[in-house]
Amino acid sequence: MFDFFYHQPVFQERMDSKASKQLPHKERVKERNKRRIQIDTSKPTEIPNKSSTDNMASRSIHDQNVRAELLSSKRDLEKNQRRSRTGKGRGMPKKGGAGGKGTWGKPGGAMDLCEESSVDKNDPNYDSENEGKDVKIVGIEVMLSAEEAKPLIKDIIVEYFEHGDTDDVADSASEMNIVGTMYYLFAKEALYLAFDTTSNSKLEAVSVLISDLYGYHVLLDKDIEQVFNEFLAELDDISLDCPEAQSMLGKFMARCVADDCLAPKFVNQHADENLSAKAKEALHIAHGLITMKHGLVRLDSIWNAVDRKPVKHLVKKIKTMIVEYQDSYDFDNVTYLLHELGIPHFHHEIVYEIIVKCLEENSIVSATSCAIFSKQNATIEANFKLLGELTNSNLVTLTQFESGLKRVFEEIVDLAIDIPGAFKSLEAFCERCKNELSILDPVLYNQLKADAEKAFKDQELPSLLKETRIGGADSGAGDK
Q1: Which of 53, 90, 236, 315 has the fewest Cβ atoms within 10 Å of its own Cβ atom?
Q2: Cα 263 to Cα 278: distance, rounded to the nearest angstrom
Q3: Cβ–Cβ under 8 Å, residues 212 and 170
């Protein structure tokens, strides 16, 4: 290990350095550092053997002092370094949060090392089978079981009772990851919910849903037959909670026959003789409804649902309800009347009537106030408050609100002819909805507004766009 001290050029350089006393201390330290680097790189360090150890005693004191001087300079270089001088460390975490006593190391580090794929053929981890191949990740669609799908389908049916949109149910059915033989669960869950209600409108909604889903080919003949077969088999248990279950089931079967969803032979020639007495009674009721005079025509109103009445009747009811609220501000009465009507899919008419009433009232008060939708007008404020309470309580859903607003924009040209400043008033109304109710989608509003402006121009009525509440035009010269 110490043989390198007698390397002639280096030894001579050391002797010359010792003989030179004119160099300052700092310069001598630099020279020693340079020499240490040259020595370390010129010849690899050797482990001392027994012979070299024996010769250590015969070396001059001068050589031992030189070695001590080199070791001292090395310690001076390392004394400001942060790493441990013992080579063991203190058990503290490394930079980046990795390592440390009792730790697993940097998160993901071990996995990254294990998952690295080598491209070197001499590497033990090299896999020749994957060479030159593109890795493709293929997703696997997990099909829902019947137990997993039932709560989801039930939520869809409950939501359908709110909006009455069978198209939405059909779209939801097509997006579910279920096999085709499980679509009958939509009719089955709808009938289960029907047995839990006494609302004729909901019973009518279930019949309409089954008919429309059959028309969309979501439900097939065999699906509807399977549903009724299962209900006939469970009718004794169902009747414990719903005493009128056999009558309701018979009416549902008769209505499906009238809607061409169920073959008449299912009722007239049912082959299962092991049915209970209540199941046979349900089939008997269905058979009587089908075979009575003008039976198929009468079955359209079998539930006596209010929403089967003419639209004019419903519009009259809604207008009366709005007028009563303006006098009493009794929102509980409005809630009661809406539940009694049972027309959640027709609530867009309420929005339409409220907006039109506000436009008319805004035109009437234009002579006394130039402010857009002045809050001093009691009628306007009553209608706006009613709309806010309806939307906040979710009696009028966002879909129904947007449908009512679309109707107003579609008819704004005709409304503007009869109501001075209708378009400007409608813009102000929408601003209040956006700022105070937070229910107006800006994208939808901009689209409706652009379509309305185009309709005014197509019918050569651009002056009505700029017509103010007082019946004049903001820029008549420009229109001319």
Answers
A1: 90
A2: 21
A3: yes
